[in-house]
Design brief:
- The protein has about 425 residues and is mainly alpha-helical.
- It has one domain: Na+/H+ antiporter like fold.
- It has 15 helices and two strands.
- A hairpin with a 4-residue loop joins β1 and β2.
- α2 runs parallel beside α11, α4 packs antiparallel against α11 and α8 packs parallel to α10.
- One of its GO terms (biological process) is regulation of pH.
């Protein structure tokens, strides 16, 4: 399982799955795979009828969002975002990384019918960004990873809000209220589970059977919450977010830890494979929609510029109020901006939501997300490698100076 928990390995698996989907979709297997992806699996008794593609994006992806929510809560309560001072600079950089790409996209789509696609290039893929950092930046200081994690977590929070607010077409209030009741019940049961794990040997909740029973009931409530959220008109992945945020800390950490390998090995690769099943359109470059160009430019360019400029301005004007661990140099901010352009998972999801019902634009948007993220991966890899070499050189130079300053063993000044 440790192999599947590695950020480097998770990023590699995700990239291979997306590449495989795109390649197979454009071979002799393409038609069969596309038909299978569009095939519906329904449960009439509970009014559920989704395609395989949507079971993946609406169902399985809720597990990924649950893990994201647990990590977000941890960072807000006890991690790199547990105080306004710590969160200030990453929040400013994250804001720039949302506003500028959205603005770039809208510039390309002035007067076009595809303006609703502005959220697509605003997302950062945590798994991919941290994976690239882990592969190429092994000598970088810890504060860079902390800053990137904080920025990506805030970025995901914005993405969650965008999905909940802008991609909700109509609300079924009774279903939404019922989902809220289920979320509350889930939170109470998780608190009981956490309390039971702290109880003495004689405590009733320490008995294995009772704990298993609570766990089974929580799983059933989670499934019901997902169904009610879907029926309410809100994107069903928000159920995973809500459950992750209300779950008691220790059971949440254990659950996320247990689910992470499955998310890295199955959930995210399946979603990437399914989303990348796109037949490359046989059209000239001039015939591609403005949505394609907006996404393609906004991800690698808009993210890098937005994060860098906002982070630099933030450090200039409010840096004194922030702890030293959250203040980065301009070259480090440029590197973080390059990593931020890796949209991938959430960008692919937003692409499907923004252009729902316009299949040809969804296909172009998917290609643009894959290409834009690929450019960002290459650029970020070069930037991270360069900064890693610079830090390593600095460490070696400092060590050399320390060695030169040290007195020889036979020196009269040696102790």
């Amino acid at each position: 399982m440790s192999f599947l928990r590695s950020e480097r390995n998770a990023a590699a698996i995700l990239l291979v799955a997306a590449a495989l989907g795109l390649i197979l979709a454009n071979t002799g297997f393409g038609t069969a795979l596309l038909n299978a992806n569009a095939a519906h699996i329904g449960f009439p008794a509970i009014n559920l009828d989704l395609s395989v593609e949507h079971w993946t994006s609406d169902g399985l992806l809720a597990v990924f969002f649950f893990i994201v929510a647990v990590e977000l809560k941890h960072e807000l309560v006890a991690g790199s975002l547990n105080s306004p001072a710590k969160a200030l600079l990453p929040a400013i950089a994250a804001l720039g990384g949302v506003v500028v790409p959205a603005g770039v996209y809208l510039l390309f789509n002035l007067g076009s019918p595809y303006g609703d696609g502005w959220p697509i290039p605003t997302a950062t893929d945590i798994a991919f960004a941290l994976g690239v950092l882990a592969i190429f930046g092994r000598t970088l200081p810890t504060k860079i990873r902390v800053f990137l994690l904080a920025l990506a977590v805030l970025d995901d929070l914005v993405a969650i809000l965008i999905i909940a607010v802008f991609f909700t077409t109509s609300l079924n209030l009774p279903a939404l209220a019922s989902a809220a009741v289920c979320v509350a019940a889930f939170g109470v049961l998780s608190w009981m589970l956490g309390r039971g794990s702290r109880a003495g040997a004689s405590g009733a909740l320490t008995r294995r059977g009772v704990r298993i029973l609570i766990g089974v009931v929580m799983v059933l409530i989670a499934l019901l919450t997902w169904d009610l959220t879907y029926q309410s008109g809100i994107h069903a992945t928000i159920a995973g977010v809500a459950l992750g945020l209300v779950m008691a800390a220790k059971p949440a950490a254990r659950s996320a830890h247990a689910l992470q390998p499955w998310s890295n090995a199955i959930v995210l690769p399946l979603f990437a494979f399914s989303a990348a099943l796109v037949a490359i359109p046989s059209v000239g470059i001039s015939e591609l929609s403005p949505a394609f160009w907006g996404i393609l430019v906004a991800l690698p360019v808009g993210k890098l510029v937005g994060i860098t400029v906002a982070g630099w301005l933030g450090s200039r004007f409010v840096g004194r109020r922030a702890p030293a661990s959250s203040v980065l140099t301009l070259p480090d901010l440029v590197m973080i901006g390059g990593l931020g352009g890796i949209g991938f998972t959430v960008s692919l999801l937003m692409n499907e939501l923004a252009f729902k019902g316009i299949d040809e634009v969804i296909d172009e948007g998917t290609l643009a997300v894959l290409l834009g993220s690929a450019v960002s991966i290459v650029v970020a890899s070069l930037l991270v490698s360069g900064r890693s070499r610079a830090y390593r050189s600095g460490q070696m130079a400092a060590a050399s100076i320390d060695a030169d300053d040290a007195a020889p063993a036979d020196s009269p000044f040696a102790e």
